[in-house]
Design brief:
6 helices; 22% strand; 3 domains; three-stranded antiparallel sheet; two-stranded antiparallel sheet; alpha+beta; 203 residues
């Protein structure tokens, strides 16, 4: 069963079996650079390590890592990072977290200021760009700042899905050579479709 738990003013959904261990952690050992749940870290004190020998005072741990330890009795595999199945980084129940190699999970962007990722074009429209999958991606242009923020926040809430949608888009040619190659590809597709239509029997 999963329940809500507040850690360092941030609300998480954790496994109920992990709650007693969370409540016994040193309250001043939490650090967070931003209000993003993914940025919250716990650096154990000596008494924390005495209760949980798998931890180290030299390392910082995410809430997902701690929840896995407190629920299953062991830390996640070394070198792996959490992939949240429902896209919510505050939902760290073991049922919602899949541990994968770092190269598999798209890079998760963090907001350092309110308008991060937004830039105004000479036309007055607001362009949204975000780093996903190790590359800076263009999420589109919008008529207002509010619309641009909404698009950026939606991408932040589901970075994996956003990356897949961007990768599935047909890239527009930027050079004459690319345009000619695109035309040749389309002509081949049209020829293939015509051949299929000619093969169909006429009623």
């Amino acid at each position: 069963m999963c329940i809500s738990l507040t850690l360092n003013t941030l609300t998480f959904t954790v496994n109920d079996a992990a709650v007693p261990a969370f409540t016994q952690l040193s309250p001043r050992a939490w650090t967070a650079a931003t209000g993003d749940p993914r940025a919250l870290r716990f650096q154990p004190r000596r008494r924390d390590v005495e209760r949980h020998p798998q931890l180290s005072t030299r390392l910082k741990y995410t809430v997902a890592t701690l929840n896995t330890l407190f629920t299953t009795g062991s830390l996640p595999p070394p070198g792996q990072v959490p992939l949240y199945l429902d896209g919510l980084s505050s939902h760290v129940c073991v049922q919602n977290v899949q541990w994968v190699p770092r190269s598999v999970r798209p890079a998760l962007p963090r907001l350092r200021h309110r308008d991060q990722g937004l830039s105004q074009l000479p036309s007055g429209r607001i362009r949204v760009r975000m780093r996903l999958g190790g590359h800076l991606r263009d999420l589109g242009c919008y008529a207002s700042v509010d619309a641009a923020r909404a698009a950026r926040d939606a991408a932040l809430a589901d970075p994996e899905g956003t990356l897949q949608r961007l990768l599935s888009r047909v890239r527009q040619p930027r050079t004459l050579k690319e345009a000619r190659e695109r035309i040749a590809t389309l002509e081949q597709e049209v020829a293939t479709l015509r051949a299929r239509l000619n093969e169909q029997p006429v009623d």
